[in-house]
Amino acid sequence: MNEIKGGCLCGGVRYESAQAPVMSAVCHCSHCQKQSGSAFSTNVVVPAAGFSVAAKTLATYDDVGDSGLAVKRHFCSNCGSPVYSEVQAHPGVVALKAGTLDDPSWVQPNVHIWRCSAQPWVPLADGAVCFERNPDA
Ligand SMILES: [Zn+2]
Ligand SMILES: [Zn+2]
Fold first, then answer.
1. Residue 61: which domain range?
2. Which of 71, 78, 128, 129 has CA 20 to 30 A from 10's CA?
3. Where is the CENP-V/GFA domain (predicted)?
4. What is the CA(71)–ligand 2 centre distance, in A?
């Protein structure tokens, strides 16, 4: 398995996962666009059980998902990097922002969610599994 370690731009927040990822997914929802300042966020989903964070500067924005349930968006209060999210609708896992991995080269997102709000210029890989909104919806 690839080593799953990463952190924010300034290094104030560092994390690692002792377990292999469950999946990698691109989220095109409007909240991820806002938070990332980009067209989408790329998430590596790992089990919460093996996930640990060492953080001097971790802050949390309490967001609410389309489900009406809480989405805790954790970021670095020093450099502003979005680092990971906990989604109440999907307990037991943590969604890491793939760009915060020390080595993101192995990430191969195979699922796209919230395609209904994807930017029109973003290409989706052939054979990618797409959901217009959340997979559960
Ligand atoms: Zn930072
Ligand atoms: Zn999203």
1. 4-130
2. 71
3. 4-122
4. 10
Nearest bound ligand to the CA of residue 118: 2
For position 115, which CATH number holds? 2.170.150.70
pLDDT at 64: 97
For residue 78, being part of any structural domain is answered with yes
Ligand closest to Cα of 15 equals: 1
- CB under 8 Å to 75, separation ≥6 — which residues? 8, 35, 58, 59, 60, 61, 81, 82, 83
Confidence of residue 134 (pLDDT cuts 50, 70, 90): confident
- On whether residue 49 sits in a domain, the answer given is yes
Which letter does DSSP use for residue 117 in this model?
Answer: G
Whether residue 105 is predicted with pLDDT greater than 60 in this model: the reply is: yes
**98, part of any domain:** yes
Q: Nearest CA to 15 among 103, 101, 125?
A: 101
Average pLDDT, the chain: 94
Task: State the distance from the centre of ligand 2 to the C-alpha of 29, rounded, in angstroms.
Answer: 4
Cα–Cα distance, 6 to 118 (Å, whole number): 27
CA gap 59, 77 in Å, rounded: 6
Ligand nearest to the CA of 56: 1
Domain membership flag for residue 137: no
